[in-house]
Write a structure and sequence with these properties.
Elements (H helix, E strand, L loop, with lengths): L4 H4 L4 H9 L17 H15 L4 E3 L16 H19 L3 E3 L22 H5 L2 E6 L12 E9 L5 E8 L4 E3 L11 E2 L12
Helix pairs in contact: 3-4
Length: 202
């Protein structure tokens, strides 16, 4: 498949033009891929990148790969993940940039629509996050989605609405497109009981 070629180091001329140069080549992206990194090391790299390159957004792939500090290594795993989640929340506030963090899901979510409880290893992740989004291949109990579409689930959005949005999926580029790119007849946005008013403590 075309989407597998970059991982295998196999490219054709069309790939360089359509996948990389046109879409990514001009973007100010900076990659840092150490074998291991602690929150303190990530913070140092981000501070330097913000000061020197003007970085305004950080993406971490993924939460469970962050190295815990030495004094936390004897803690239960869910406590370690909770500490990482809180640390990232504080880091985003301190550095004044959004931090997008990928996280694995529990195996139970493989064949069903993921929910907040599907986040792996710690409930602290769903508590600390301002926004939680899942990409899903379809909706349970309904007709399967077309091959070029996916469902974007938003079960938590601290400052906005929640629901489901159909997005365009381009497997060749491993790319999700804006909902407006999807045929309006297939566009669906459902606000369910997630969006009901809730009493919250701030």
């Amino acid at each position: 498949a075309a989407a597998d070629r970059p991982r295998k180091g196999l490219f054709v001329q069309a790939d360089h033009g359509s996948i990389f140069l046109d879409e990514i080549g001009e973007l100010p992206l900076y990659l840092w891929s150490p074998a291991m990194a602690t929150l303190a090391e990530i913070r140092g790299v981000l501070m330097n990148a913000i000061a020197k390159q003007g970085v305004r957004l950080a993406c971490i792939d993924y939460l469970s790969l962050i190295e815990v500090e030495s004094h936390q290594r004897k803690d239960m795993r869910h406590l370690q993940v909770a500490a990482l989640s809180r640390g990232l929340k504080r880091m985003a506030k301190e550095l004044k940039i959004p931090i997008v963090v990928l996280q694995q899901l529990n195996r139970e979510a493989d064949n069903s629509e993921p929910k907040l409880g599907s986040l792996r290893e710690s409930g602290a992740v769903e508590q600390d996050a301002d926004v939680v989004m899942f990409l899903h291949h379809g909706m349970d109990g309904r007709t399967p989605m077309p091959a070029d579409q996916r469902m974007l689930l938003v079960p938590k959005f601290r400052a906005g609405p929640m629901g489901r949005i159909t997005v365009k999926w381009d497997g060749r580029k491993t790319q999700f497109r804006d909902p407006q790119a999807v045929d309006c007849g297939n566009y669906e946005k459902i606000f369910d009981d997630f969006n009901a008013p809730k009493a919250e403590n701030f």
